Amino acid sequence: MSCNKLTEEPSSIIVSDQFYKTQSDAVAAVSAVYSTLNSDPAGDFPLYGRNLNLLIGNGSDDQVYSPSNTNPDVRALGTTTYVASNDRVRKNWQQHYYGISKANIAIDNIPNIHFDETLRNRLVNEAKFIRALLYFNLVRLHGDVPLILHDPTTVDVNSLKVARTPLNEVYSQIIADLTDATNLPKSYTGADKGRVTSGAAHALLAKVYVTRKDWTNAKLELESVLTTGTFPNATGSYGYDLFANYRDAFQKPTKNGKEHIFSVQYETNLGAKNSANFLSSGDFNSYNPAVYAGDLPDERLVAIFDTTDTRRAVSFFNKLFNPANNTIVDFGAVTHFGKFIDFTLNPLTNQGQSGVNFPVLRYADILLLYAETLNEISGPTADAYAAINKVRTRAYGGVAHDLAPELSQAEFRDAVFLERRKEFVQEANRWFDLVRSGTLVEALKKIPAKEPNVSDKNYLYPIPQVEIDLNPLLKQNPGW
């Protein structure tokens, strides 16, 4: 306490001017960016695997909260009674900006480190992809958001307060980051499997253009991902394709396979909270239906699947095999989500050790976006039918289940969005699809628990109230 001239370099705290010196430092910095997608520094649920899905699934017409869920903020999302102080809305905002901050640090510092130029550029572009993904989520969730591209160099609180950036400016940055990321490698081997590829950058860029209704650019990007030879204008050389079995898109033995364009990575029992434990199985600490705490799909979602659609048995369950005593546990009339259960685990109740990845971009998404894009440009063309029917055929176990011919443009559009709903249960798509199709209010009014509370304000989530309290430059979205 008496020393007032201490000038030692800190030995137990690594600051930025000490850290970014070597190739290993650069790799570690980008690993930290990836880690923001599957873990939380405060030990909360991960962004991909739980928290984002609470807004996109529970906030849509696909899902209601489990009766056993006592968190009032989660229950409010399920009844569309959430407010600006909702803690899950706040947590999503914070997790997104935490990931953006990590990406900014990597993007700013890695170019100053002297090591192999090819690897250096690759690492920066990986970080740019993740920054673009996070900003893409934010602008779709909240509209105008603060565009922060550099890590703060000051501790002056007032200088850290930033106003919301116009939507078009944020999208321009997203497109710029993803364009840079298209220079990434086409594939990786060994321990690098699962890293961002150029195919992932083109795929996400296509999704951005679809969201912006820029159909011309969307078509070009989609065709650069579609595997050559499958469609007349396809130019992609990535070899993407659908798994023959729909279940294989969500299992550990087949992860990072031919259908996976970009997935958030999980591995068995490495300590990160995992996708399976919190998306399908809830607490999953018992085979006893009376105490099971998993999230529940809305009954109307289950009803849109016919019994021969293989996606139904993958996405939901009301019976479960218990290998401990060779019995089948019957959950009766109550249906649960089942897509992300890791069936390599024995007993299945040990889902905390799951190694199932969370798929952010699958080839099925590209096919359905392509069908949508072609339809918006010139109505339902032969290639548009071929794209959606490829997804439908896989869904029915390889048996052709083609759409009715000669649909109008509006009918084909509805068919595409219905197919997306069936294909991407719990994959953080539904709320975004309802918003961009302009059908969110109509859809939520069909859910009795949500109907009285829905209005046009729900097309955007509120800016978290705590952020406005800390930063008066932030203005709230209309209606909140």
Structure description:
The chain is mainly alpha-helical and 480 residues long. The chain is built from 18 helices and 8 strands. The strands form 4 sheets. Strands 1-3 form a two-stranded antiparallel sheet. A two-stranded antiparallel sheet has the order 2-8. It has a two-stranded antiparallel sheet with strand order 4-7. Helix 2 packs antiparallel against helix 5, helix 7 runs antiparallel to helix 8 and helix 13 packs antiparallel against helix 14. The radius of gyration is 23 Å and the shape is globular.
Strand content: 5-15%
Q: For the report, how would you describe the main beta sheet?
A: 2 strands, antiparallel
Helix content estimate: 40-55%
- The strand line-up of the biggest sheet is 1-3
Helical element count?
18
- What is the CA-CA span between the terminal residues? 50 Å
